[in-house]
Design brief:
By secondary structure, the chain is α+β, with helices and mostly antiparallel strands. 36% of the residues lie in helices and 21% in strands. It is globular. Pfam families: Acetyltransf_1.
């Protein structure tokens, strides 16, 4: 890995570049249509501390990776971290940047009182092996959980119904 890579908390000046990488990640995952928020909403949510972000920065100031995480609550475990995104530019994968971003983000959650972390990984993503090497457990295999989500349109419909 380039010894000139710094992992640091994202600042407001980084959010446009992080948003651009978020769009790169959605394209990599073959799900570009899933990005429903605007850059302005993403920036507003960052300012309002809806999430935490770390970035990997080269010595020339160019960002080459990021994470986005937030806290959730488990009635069994208390505070837990939800890692929403981790991304490293394709040409720098396998150099240790992802590992440093992941560990830095996990440590930040731990310092904030989180007892564990969870995240989603597409079954075809080669990073599955990477996460297992870092101690992650696939709870789909181990605990037979299914992850459900009320999608945006259905969420709005549900929340605006007269029931």
């Amino acid at each position: 890995m380039d010894s000139q890579i710094t992992i640091r908390k994202a600042e407001l000046k980084d959010i446009s570049e992080v948003f651009a990488m978020l769009q790169e990640l959605s394209a990599f995952e073959k799900l570009p249509q899933n990005v429903k928020i605007s850059k302005e909403t993403f920036e507003k949510d960052f300012i309002e501390k809806a999430f935490t972000s770390f970035v990997a920065e080269r010595s020339d100031g160019k960002l080459v990776g990021y994470t986005v995480s937030c806290q959730a609550y488990s009635t069994w475990e208390g505070r837990v971290m939800s890692l929403r995104d981790i991304y490293v530019k394709p040409e720098l994968r396998g150099t240790g940047i992802g590992r440093k971003l992941f560990i830095t983000t996990m440590k930040d959650g731990y310092k904030a009182g989180c007892n564990s972390a969870f995240f989603l990984v597409l079954d075809w993503n080669p990073a599955v092996k990477f996460y297992k090497e870092l101690g992650a457990t696939d709870i789909t295999e181990k605990e037979n959980y299914h992850i459900f989500k009320v999608l945006t349109d259905d969420f709005v419909k549900l929340c605006t119904s007269t029931e």
